[in-house]
Amino acid sequence: MIDLIAFDADDTLWGNENYFYQTQNEYAQILSDYGCKEAVLERLHSTEIKNLKLYGYGVKSYTLSMIEAALSLSFREIPGELVAKILALGAKMLTEPVQPMNQVQDVLEKLSRNHNLITITKGDLLDQNRKMKKSGLEKYFSDVIVVSEKNDEAYQQIIDSKQIKAANFLMVGNSMKSDILPVLNIGGYGAYVPYQYTWEHEQVVEPVQHDKLFELKDMKEILDLKFFN
């Protein structure tokens, strides 16, 4: 029996990574005088990963990393007007529309009739709450939890706070690394719903096999899982 179903937010409930891809293309164009697209994005990625422990996840930390990478590529000679353009890229990402993905609202409506649903996501607290409200999905969830990292300890703390056992917990998400593997490690169930884009930092190369893992083609297949029939 499943007592609690948790959903990831970005790229599970609504699209998000596509905005990062779009921003990267514009960023590389802004810095085209300082390197080819591949070199610019490689520097950005390495800077972003380096800064995760300091800044965490989300658009604001990403914007800081864009500025730092630009300073590095330009040997600290980048003009102020280009820094302003980079800041504008970050601001634009914070105001992008939030559109629930296909099937999401129907699935949440049906599951919420008989199950307790929550959201567990990484990122900036203010931005994630903004997206949840703009999505119109807030009414389906009893709690929206924003964590600094998704690991075994974080998930264990959450299910302990909800006073349930891991064996009665199902996590739904698009990241095998952050949404699924830690939950399997503590004895819970994971439903993996891939998205068209996956951040390089979240990619898992080796195939995963586990008797509590469900790999789905789309969100609607959740309703066909053994728990709900």
TrEMBL record:
Coiled-coil features, chain-numbered ranges: none
Pfam families found in the cross-reference section: Hydrolase
Alphabetized UniProt keyword annotations: Hydrolase
Organism: Ancylomarina salipaludis
Gene3D superfamilies, sorted: HAD superfamily/HAD-like, Putative phosphatase, domain 2
Gene Ontology terms, MF aspect: hydrolase activity
PANTHER family per UniProt: HAD FAMILY HYDROLASE (PTHR43316:SF8), HYDROLASE, HALOACID DELAHOGENASE-RELATED (PTHR43316)
Stated name of the protein: HAD family hydrolase
InterPro entries per record: HAD-like_sf, HAD_sf, PGP-like_dom2, S-2-haloacid_dehalogenase
